[in-house]
Input
Amino acid sequence: MCSTLRRQRTAPTERSGFRALSSGAKSDHSDYLGTFTRQTNSTQSTTATRTYDAFGLLVSSTGTPQGPFGFVGGSGYQEDADSGLKLLGHRYYDASTGRFLTRDPAQDGRNWYSYCGNRATSALDATGHFLTSLDSDPAAVAELVDEGVIGAPRPTPPLPGSGLLKQVFAIAHIVGAALGLVASEPGEDDDDTSIWRRGRDPESPGRLKKKAVEAERAGFPHGVSGTTTTPADPSGWSHAPLSGLESGGFPVVPTPTRTDPGHVTVTMPREIGGDIAGLFNRIFGR
Output
């Protein structure tokens, strides 16, 4: 998020927290976040309903909702039925991961891809650049969750460098050692996990984009391959610290394979230009 705008409001109630917007013969009814959860016709009969979790992933629906506005549609969030993405002003957002596809242009904070600072039940981002805090009363939000008005917050995927992700890498390393793929287990005093990638020459934007597309077609995240398994002969490899990839905006996802339990995918943005490729190469020391 580039900056924070605060909007004071009272705790949502049956009268003050909900609204209906009419368009022709249908009306959209929203919750306090502006999520359109129900559509009615001219006789006020319900024709369609939608239930989202806290980060905007569609959990269930009835009927055939009309229009591109659903999750926080009252603030202009538009849904693309084909890709499943949502357009929030200037940036696309993936509700299945709770992350934007492109980095925050202001590079504010440590995580430039997070949605509303992971405060999905008490903030919104209509432009993709500015977080609007609703200053929600936690008790009021909890009450809405209990009543089924909004979905309960779900844990977001662990960020690269987090203790949980490092535990996953450590377990993968132990499995690799048991299979004879790794010489020994990682030391307890290791400060950071190394991500290894084959090759030592700088990679062009075109090559990185091609590899990311190939990975996605093979069922992996949109990114390039790496491994936490130290190569037997590291002379033809380069490596980067996990924390460096995190701070550079390249989330690392464990994607173990049958032959390499330490295999990971270094995720890449959809748009890979010279600046992205240059940063990627610098982190890997190429």
User: Anything to note?
Assistant: The mean pLDDT is 75. The chain has five helices and 17 strands. The CA atoms of residues 30 and 128 lie 21 Å apart.
